[in-house]
Amino acid sequence: MFIDRSRIFIKSGKGGDGSVSFRREKYVPNGGPDGGDGGKGGDIIFKVDPGINTLSDFRYNKQFKAEHGQNGMKKRQHGSDGKNLVIKVPLGTIIRDDETDKIIADMAHMDSEEIILKGGRGGRGNQHYATATMQAPEYAQPGQKSKELWIKLELKVIADVGLVGYPNVGKSTLLSRVTNARPKVANYHFTTLSPNLGVVDFKDGNGFVIADIPGLIEGASEGVGLGLEFLRHIERTKLIVHVVDVASLEGRDPITDIQSINKELESYNMELLKRPQVIAANKIDVLTSQEPIEALKKEFEPKGIKVFPISAATNDGLKDLINEIRTQLSTVSKDTVVFEKEFYTDHIEDEAFESIKVEKVDEDTYSIEGPKVERMLGYTNLNSEKGFDFFQKFLKENKIINQLESLGIQEGDTVRIYDLEFDYYR
């Protein structure tokens, strides 16, 4: 089954905690701190795998977690880093934040590799906190928290040319005639249930990729038929080829069909109508009159859209059509259409962690709250003089004392930090 969308949960590894340890050797009765640092948590990395062409691997597997870093150990031993988790995706996969739908990364090149979530930093052991006045620190830094995110994966195929048209007009047959693709071809609607890609080769090496985009009918941009499922795959194409049944074997009007599909393209993404277009008037082998071709030319060639009578069944006209496509592609950028990054994951949770809320509760009581403060309390021994001095230094370095003073705190007032209360003195 062709799967081109999926929603998954990713989580990087937590950093290992720093160690609180002291040398305990036979002839070193007053050994100094020797707590080692924690290891870094593993990253979540996405990488293009050319051997994958759908997102079917994510159909049932929805959760991906990297390894945590190991805690630091005594004797200055560093905890081992958590292993990175590399998630392989097909070329053309777009990674979006699930909540905002903003683009995190576009895996648009064969060598695309992106760190989507970084693992937490390892905490520093107590060996780093020894000073001339604090020779036996009883605290260490905890590892940085992991980061987690629900994301959406969306595949947009990489192709230079997109074949569009109503079902049963001959798109798959045309693709099979001019490229190395071998799509399923049959005389009934919606034979093609997934985009098919083929390469048109030339002796000079300047070939191009064609995609057969299935399911485009009137109302496709609103979810009618299969159109909405596949409209995304035309967004990277540089040129659009309308394939129509010029013989009207099923009673359809080719001009109305092209106008209807252009309307759907415009409704989905207005930029699509700015792409060059060519019309492949197919099934001339069963055409009894030239009037339909003349009508197509009269309607569209004044608008700069050339009409090429072809028969995918007999190969008539295919050479002229392919040469025109090649000529038009030579006038547009050869760069792959890449969607710009809109969402940055570097600061997920970091902003909340860094936020510190300082406020005046009543006339002589003030409160301090925030994840950063709460975390500091968790690894500081306030019952020791050195630990309390360390915490005061933290309050000064983070300008919390300045905020209290700007709110009008006076000596003897109460400072409440969660379930702890202190009297304020300068």
From TrEMBL:
Location in the cell: Cytoplasm
Domain OBG-type G intervals: 159-330
Region (Disordered): 14-43
Listed Gly residues bias regions: 32-42
GO cellular component terms attached to this protein's record: cytoplasm
Binding-site list for Mg(2+): 172, 192
EC number: 3.6.5.-
Keyword Cytoplasm found: yes
Domain Obg, residue spans: 1-158
Top EC class for this record: hydrolase
Gene Ontology molecular function terms on file: GTP binding; GTPase activity; magnesium ion binding
UniProt cross-references to PROSITE patterns, sorted A to Z: G_OBG, GTP1_OBG, OBG, OCT
GO process terms (BP): ribosome biogenesis
Domain OCT: 345-426
Keyword annotations from UniProtKB, A to Z: Cytoplasm, GTP-binding, Hydrolase, Magnesium, Metal-binding, Nucleotide-binding
Family in the record: Belongs to the TRAFAC class OBG-HflX-like GTPase superfamily. OBG GTPase family.
Record text on subunit structure and interactions: Monomer.
Annotated protein name in UniProt: GTPase Obg
Organism expressing this protein natively: Natranaerovirga hydrolytica
Record gene name: obg
